[in-house]
Amino acid sequence: MKTTTIHALFIAAALGGGLAIGYLFLPGEWYQSLVKPFFTPPNWLFAPAWSILYVLIGIAGARTFIRERASPPMALWVSQMVLNFLWSPVFFGAQRPALGLGIIILLLLSILLFIIRRWRLDRVSALLFVPYALWVSFATLLNASIVYLN
Predict the structure, then answer these.
(1) Nearest CA among 132, 142, 126, 144 for reference residue 107
(2) Nearby residues of 10 by Cβ (< 8 Å), 6 or more positions away
(3) Where the protein is mainly located, per its record (predicted)?
(4) In the chain, how many domains are there?
(5) How far apart are CA 64 and CA 79, in angstroms?
(6) How far apart, in Å, do the first and last CA atoms of the chain sit?
(7) What value does the mean pLDDT take over residues 65-81?
(8) What is the DSSP letter of 92?
(9) pLDDT of 103-122, one tens digit each?
C-alpha cells in the first residue's frame, strides 16, 4: 500500500472518528448547567482545535504504522485513540466527569509515552504529538476543575 494511502486512511480514521463521536456526544444542557472554571474556552473552539489535532494524530499514526506496524509505539498510538474516543461518551454521554477524569489522565499518560518512545526513532511523529499533549493537559485541568466545582 502506498504511503499516501496509509496517511489518508489514518487521518480519515482519526478525524472521522473524532468528528463522529463529537457529533454523537454533544455537550448539551447537562454540561451547560455545570459550574465551570473561569478559563473554560468557548464551545466553538473545540471543533476546530480537535480537527487540527486529529489530522496531526493521524499523520503520526501513519508514520508509526509505516515504520513499525507491530510495535509498542503503535500499541500506544492505538491505546491513546481508544482512550480519546472513550472520553466523550463517558463525560458527556454518561455524565460522569470523575470517570472522565480518570480516562483523560490515562490518555495524557499514553500521549506522553508515545512522545518519549518516538523521540529518538521518529522525531517528527513525537513533535506532531506535542500540541496534542498540551491540549490534553489543558483539558485534564479543565476536567479536574469541573469535578472539583461540581
Answers:
(1) 132
(2) 58, 59, 61, 62, 65
(3) membrane
(4) 1
(5) 13
(6) 50
(7) 95
(8) I
(9) 999 999 999 999 999 999 99
CA atoms within 13 A on the CB side of 93: 11
Read off the CATH number of the domain in which 84 is found: 1.20.1260.100
Quick count: other Cβ atoms within 10 Å of Cβ 43?
A: 11
Number of helices (H), then strands (E), in the chain: 7, 0
Q: List the domain range (segments joined by +) for residue 110.
A: 3-149
Spatial neighbors of 37 by CB under 8 A, at least 6 apart, are 142, 145, 146, 149
Residues in the chain: 150
For 12, the grid coordinates are: 480519515
**pTM of this prediction?**
0.95
Q: Find, among 85, 90, 110, 109, the residue nearest to 100 by Cα.
A: 90
The sign of the dihedral angle between the CA atoms of 97, 101, 131, 56 is: negative
- Report whether 116 contacts 7 (CB < 8 A): no
CA nearest neighbour of 53 among 120, 143, 137, 116 = 137
Instruction: Return the C-alpha cell found at 66.
Output: 509505516
